[in-house]
Structure formats: structure tokens, C-alpha cells
Amino acid sequence: MKWQQAVEHADTEWNKVCQQECHAKIKVEQEETKMSKLKDNYTKVAKDLDNMTKKLAEYKSQISVNGKLYLEAQKAHIVVQRKIRQIKIECNIILKECKVYEFLKNLKIRNLLQTY
Q: What's the pLDDT tens digit per position in 56-75?
């Protein structure tokens, strides 16, 4: 009878160990599944980061080009403003000369009329 109890006890312990092993396998599989999902997520995030880094480099390049174009446009604008100022000055000089000429012409006509 002792040996039967020992066998039953051994069977009970064996079943407990088998159940624990089964639970451990399930836990390991669950952890492996989690790890696989994390690895996939990491790969996706790394790819997204790489794409964002490339886009950022493109945007920086575009900003640089746009900055250069803006500076060139500003320089051209300044040149045009200076040219407009110069033309205004020349126009004012011509206008003054015309007024002086008109004044002298009128003065000459008056003098001629007064002499007659």
C-alpha cells in the first residue's frame, strides 16, 4: 500500500509538473508573440524615422534654396528701387529745366512786348 500511495503521489506530482510545464510553455509563447510584435513595431518605427529624416533633409534643402531665392529677389528689388529713385531725380531735373525754360520764354516775350 505504501508503494501505491508513493506511485499515486508521484503521478500527482508528475501531473502538477506537466501542468506547470504547459503553463510555462504558454507563457513563453505569449512572451515570444509580444517580442515579435515589439520587433515588428520597432522595425516600422525605425523605417518611419528614416523616412522622416530623409523628408527633413529635403525640407532643409528647400528652405536653403528658398532663402537664396529670397535674397536674390531682395537684391533685385533694391536695384529696381534705386533705379526708380534715379529716374525720379532725372525727371525732377527735367521738369525744373522745363519750368525755367518756360519762365525764360515768358520773360523774353514780355520784354519784347514791352519794348514795342
A: 999 999 999 999 999 999 99
Give Cα separations from 47 to 37, 38, 43, 57, 59 (angstroms). 15, 14, 6, 15, 18
Q: Cite the DSSP H helix spans in the chain.
A: 2-115
CA–CA separation, 77 and 71 (whole Å): 10
Hunting for cell 529635403 — which residue is that?
Answer: 58
The cell numbers describing 5, all together, are 500511495
Whether 114 is covered by a domain: the verdict is no
Sign of the Cα pseudo-torsion (33, 39, 42, 43, in order): negative
Total structural domains in the chain?
1
pTM over 0.70: no
Alpha-carbon distance of 58 to 67, in angstroms, equals: 14
Q: Is there a domain that residue 86 lies in? A: yes
- Interatomic CA distance for residues 63 and 61, integer angstroms: 5
Would residue 59 count as lying in a domain? yes
